[in-house]
Structure formats: structure tokens, C-alpha cells
Amino acid sequence: MMTKPKGNYAVHQGDEYQASVDTWTNKIILMSQDPADLENGFTAYKPGMNLYVKSVDVTDIEDAYEVSWHAEYKGMECHVAWIRDEVVQLETTYENSKRASELGFWLAEPGVLALEVPQDQLDTLFIRTMKIWGFPQ
User: Strand, helix or coil at 55?
Assistant: First the structure.
């Protein structure tokens, strides 16, 4: 199983948080499940939920990146959409349609081909990170 959830992350004051952008304000929304972050300016998202948020300017974060899961299956690199009960859904685009068709991929949505396979049939499973929000690679 992959240890780091997919999504966007930001480093703020040396700590890593899951993060998103508020498109109305262009602020970075930091998310934490640690109640101790209430001491660091976070507020409870909703009463009873174990989620705390803090809105900061992009200039207040040290780094930002997107984490995505990928796999190689029978020599073809694919995006991993999800992993459940040791089954992996792989996705690729029409660029790989000939090879994907040979491997049994099906049309999941326009432009996306998918295949569900047991995790133990993958050649490799790995995490890829990509800088976001203007941070240099």
C-alpha cells in the first residue's frame, strides 16, 4: 500500500500539510488532523471533525508539490487512480491506446483508459512528486 496519500502538499514553518488553493482569494489552505495545530493558528473546520485549517499567502510557504501514484504494468507506465483490497486501478491516455488495448484496458471516460489488476501483478508501484504553485523543480 502507498504510504503517502495522493494530493497537494505545502511546507509551512517547516511542517508539511495537505493543501489546496482557495480560488476566490488565491490563498493556500493548509489542512491538518493534529489538534496541536490549533496553537499554530489553525481553526476547526467543522465541530466534531478531526480537521483543522489555516489560510496563508503563497509567500508564507517554503515549498509546494503534488504527490501522485504511478505504476509500471507489463512494461507500460500508468497513473494509479486508486488501490483497494490489493486491487489497483490503472489509467492511461489515448497516447498509449494500442498497447493499453492489448493489455485489456477499457474506456473509463473520454480520453482515459482504465484497467483493474491485482497489486501483485504490477512491475513496480511508486510515488512521483511535482512542484506546484510556482515553486522551482
Answer: strand
Q: Is the model's pLDDT at 5 over the cut of 90?
A: no
Phi, psi of 48, deg, nearest 5: 85, -10
CA distance 108 to 130: 25
d(CA 65, CA 100): 29
Give the separation between CA 136 and CA 130, rounded to whole angstroms.
10
Report CA 16 to chain centroid distance, whole Å. 14
| Amino acid (one-letter) located at 3 | T
- The answer to whether residues 105 and 88 touch, using CB atoms and an 8 Å cutoff, is no
Nearest of 61, 68, 69 to residue 16 by alpha carbon: 61
* 66-119 confidence digits (pLDDT tens): 999 999 999 999 999 999 999 999 999 988 889 999 999 999 999 999 999 999
Q: Nine-digit cell at 45? A: 473546520
Backbone dihedral angles phi then psi of residue 59, each to the nearest 5 degrees: -70, -15
